[in-house]
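[Q] Does anyone have a clean structure-token version of this?
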Amino acid sequence: MPNSLNRRDLLLSATIAAGSAALPATSPQARTITGEVPWTPGDANRPDIAAGGDYQFLTADEVAFLDAAVARLIPADDLGPGAKEAGVTFFLDRQLGGPFGSAQSWYMQGPWDDGEETQGYQSRMTPAQMYRAAIKAIDAYCRQAFGDRAFSALSTDEQDKVLTGLEKGDIKLENVKAAAFFDMFLQNVVEGFFSDPIYGGNRDMAGWKLIGFPGARYDYRPYVSKHNQKLALEPVSLRGRAGWEPSKS
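[A] Here you go.
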């Protein structure tokens, strides 16, 4: 019948009626915005910024270990600062004390059989628990193997030897698989060196400057066609340029 409603019209009518019923009689008129930006710059939702300078999760011994270890994985050289100078230990502190450290979004139930290497993370420990147990075990190993010296007190050659042993799984640690810890640790160090500075690492955008990454810029269209060309652009964080503060109005 020409006057009958089809299903689409019926659903549309029902939706409009339901929406109208929910509006109060005094609902304000919709505002038309012309010639202005309908939001205040800086007021959009942003990731939490790693603030402060104190360590919240790591102990003094753990900081000493991590400062020494990250400095061997990404050392400072004539090209610029290394992981230690870029604040990677501080980045790790904030990550281990947050959702990553507690494996908040991971499946952490059994079974606990040994998996294949291709299956990824298999430990029943959260990352925070693994870091804490591994650092303690590595320092214990170093004291036994290097005349009662912790990892941070070893020479750089000795530290490299220990890290190589961890990577290959040649060093056996109490309660922790050395290679599994090293894989996670190396990945986290790289993340801390190259992630946005709001997360506590990549201080002064040292990692981005090293590889020439311009950062979180709003518009890259002028550079899309500039293939194999070095862009002389200062990197920009999600927080903005150096000295920029979000609007407080």
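[Q] Thanks! Anything notable?
[A] Residues 60-211 form one domain.
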